[in-house]
Amino acid sequence: MHSSEYQRDTVEPILSREQFVSISDTLAALAGKLRIEAMLLVNSSGRIIASNIKTGWRGDMTLLATLAASSFSAANEMGRVLGEREHFKMILHEGANRNIFVSTVNSHYFLIVVFEKGVALGMVRLLTKKTIQELVPILKLKTGEKYPENIFDGRFTSQLDDELDRSLTEFS
Hints:
The structure is a single chain. This protein is α+β, with helices and mostly antiparallel strands. The protein has helices at about 15-35, 60-80, 120-140, 155-170; strands spanning about 5-10, 35-45, 50-55, 90-95, 100-105, 110-115. The termini are far apart.
């Protein structure tokens, strides 16, 4: 698949324009190498920073990002219970038609990769690791700059809670 089959998207980036363009190019390069349906660069709270989604692919990316962030948090708590000293580096969810690979980029970001069942997991892991190595220097904060602690205001948190409640009631 060619990267031209993908659309670039973002939700209110907290990065510079230069960082966003570099991130988008890096995600597009990975998308061009594998049959990836969607990629999301997400912060640790589940906020989508940048994405690369196959044109025509349908899915609620905001909900996916939020659930992946929750899943990652839960997995790390399980690790803590088991005595792990560091956070887990990746999570894989295998489905009948699609898989979701979630991997830590750094302490503030992780990458979600949604891919078709027929794509070799080893290639996804290898190329995602290479992509993450390219993303790390792009995402480094300027010297002396602190990571914003309270990115979300009360309104966003309330909307997120409402959206999660709505989505969970659809499944019951």
